[in-house]
Amino acid sequence: MKTIRRCLGTLLMLFSVHHVQTARSTPITYTLSGLGSGSLGGVSFTNTAFTISALADTSQISQPLTPLFRVTNSATTISVKGMPIGTLLTNTVTLDFQNPNASEANAGIFLYYQGPRLLSVFNSAFQTYDLSTSFAPHFGNAGIQSNFVFPTTAGDFFFSSVSSASFAASIVPEPSAIALLGFLAWAVGVKRRRENSPRPLDHSIAPPASIHHPSIP
Q: Is the pLDDT of residue 18 over 50?
């Protein structure tokens, strides 16, 4: 039991150190989804569900201007319901504009700063977001570069309109962190099972001697 406790303590310490070391350099996925119309690979779609996912690293986030946070995405994919998934063939960036005007604050995916806009979402919550943490889905008005063509592995893509959209972000746990958490869960389970299992009888203790009652004549 003491060995398990020592192992748990050591693993918790290692996990804490690992968390501190990777806190500033963590994979993150930005997700924009909604309903839109446009074309992918020469096939048109109308008011169809779509999801755009961009993978980046928080250590690459910069602030070129006071109200702006920027990060270059390592990969950006577009998924339209009923159509093949396409990966953009050009680099993209995720931008967050912390505009002092709440109605102008927005976050989304662009080819470059002030460049063609794939999609962005307007919401006052982006006034305090800096792209470095997980972010619950926030809905708002959509901004697009209407009919601007973005080459993908599934063919050319463009939006003609977007009726609804949301922006979210989620930290991607590293494999080493997942392995540590899995081992911790296993060790805790073993500890609990041992605590709850019935203890075996100690046969080394002799049973009490029987008491002899004299017979009554």
A: no
Order of strands, sheet of 27-40, starting from the edge strand that comes earlier in the sequence: 62-65, 68-72, 93-97, 106-110, 117-122, 135-143, 157-171, 27-40, 43-57, 75-80, 86-87
Please choose, from the candidates 145, 169, 35, the residue with its C-alpha nearest in 3D space to the C-alpha of residue 96. 169
Q: Hey, where are the domains in the chain?
A: 23-171
Q: What is the model's pLDDT at position 24?
A: 62
Is 83 a residue whose pLDDT tops 90?
Answer: yes
Query: CA–CA separation, 141 vs 217, rounded Å?
Result: 105
What is the Cα Rg of the chain in Å?
Answer: 29
* Residues 129, 43: Cα–Cα separation, whole Å: 36
* CA separation for the pair 103, 105 (Å, rounded): 6
Beta-sheet strands, E only, within 20-113: 27-40, 43-57, 62-65, 68-72, 75-80, 86-87, 93-97, 106-110
For residue 85, count CB atoms less than 10 angstroms from its CB and return exposed for 0-12, middle for 13-18, buried for 19 or more.
Answer: middle
For 204, how many CA atoms within 13 A lie in the half-sphere containing its CB?
2
Tell me the C-alpha distance between 217 and 200, whole Å. 44
Q: Is the pLDDT at 129 greater than 90, yes or no? A: yes
Residue 216 has pLDDT above 90, yes or no: no
Is 212 a residue whose pLDDT tops 90? Answer: no
Average pLDDT, the chain: 83
